[in-house]
Amino acid sequence: PTGDSWGIFTFLCAALCNLPALPALNCSEELGAGQSIQQTYDLTRYLEHQLRTLAGTYLNYLGPPFNEPDFNPPRLARAERVPSATVDLDLWRGLTDNARLAANYRAYSRLLCYLRVLDGQVGTAELRHRLAHFCASLQGLVLSIGGVMSSLGYPLPAGPAGPPAPPGAHAAPNDFLKKMDDFWLLKELQTWLWRSAKDFNRLKKKVPPAVVTLRLEARGF
Amino acid sequence: DSHIQYERVGADVTMKCGSMDWDAAVTWTANGTDINESRLNGSYLILKNVNLSQSGQYSCYEGSSWHLKYQTSLRVGMPPKEPVLMCRSNNYPKGFYCSWHLPTPTYIPNTFNISVIHGTKDMVCEKDVIPKNRCHIRYLQLFSTVKYKVTLTVTNALGKNSTTLTFDEFAIVKPDPPESVVAKPVPNNPRRLEVSWQNPSSWPDPESFPLKFFLRYRPLILDQWQHVELSDGTSHTITDAYAGKEYIIQVAAKDNDIGTWSDWSVAVHATPWTEEPKHLTTEAQITETTSASTSSFMAPPTTKICDKGTVVGSGAVAVCWTAGLVVAAYSVLFI
Fold it and tell me: Where would I find the Ig-like domain in this sequence (chain B) (predicted)?
């Protein structure tokens, strides 16, 4: 029954998300934050490209109306647990580098989480393979962002706070709503990747490679 | 009192002479010209299968007194066909604009009403003064997962029609073409052309939202274009131009990550540098230079004589003063 599997899903998610924050890569400090930002930017573009194929296949697997190009459903309240990239224009502009990076880090960590659970549930082998590949790349992105944050001296955001929700709390009551959840997950992922390209463009301009050396000197390294 | 009457092309129109009875004796005029009685049915004017040329002022006069009993302005037209709507963001991330037009004219006044829905929110699209059929919207939020739905309704006295566009925020991003495209030859390089341009002025934030560019060029004598895509910078040097051939060059822009390419910029023409042809003999060189130097001492007829700034060299001054005296002498004679 769907209730049980969704309970497992929420539990798994909580467990995976409470893993200790991934350590920053030492090599990024040597490369300089500027170059790491460029690499992270490139990764988001690569993932965006990958997602297009993955989403196409997955939506076809879900079937109509999810795979129709002008499918434009209203946003249900239950979909809010997937982190949204949507942000007020002035707020986005005014984000500090730390806040900007942290928002990306948190979002992708959670999205990765949800995707991994999805991976365990899908039907076809082809889809499982694609999802696994995508998850691996997304993991790389999370690591990359973490690396940039560490090289700039920012602390990595902690995992989601609070105890895991009781099993079945977020379960979709029927098959259609479960598919809607999947649809929104993919949509948010797509939006985040497109937002990240802009986030990292902004960071690129504000953090040239030379800055990192100065920062390290200032901190007495 | 005066009326306006709208009728469809091809319709049959019956005009009554106000409150006059059917059997009253009346005269109808169209734009001041009397209408033949054969078109009347009693005091009613019958116009069958009206066409556009029949639009005008129709007046009805009482038979004997010539009192004006009724007047109407007939406007023949058509109900609107489905309008053509286009939305585009050339100033991302500020907002977007939508513009529209009718595929065929209706010949009568039309009202346009535009509505923009974003998820559950109704947004106001502010109408532009110029051009008329255009409105713009400011984005309140960026990176939205919810699509925008724009509905345009066109209404006139004979009917209405509408069209709807649904799109994602990033799908309609299309910058204006690059500006100030300049192509110059490179001295001592017969196969090079230096091209430079500027970001379109409508693009508000190229720092955070950088543009990438697409350059195309070909010699005028060939049809096939060469293409270069440039991910940053607003200049490029063509290094494989055919020596001595005039080139046509254009540039297009696109947001680095989203949307579509702009239209091509205004075309610029340039020819690569070519070496000056050498002089054939030294004698020819000498005669050239001497004739050149003498001609410079003659004041050209179109310029002012003795404009202080242009006087250079004693010889020229002498000529200048002489000319001045001559002019002074003549002017004294004519006073």
Answer: 10-60
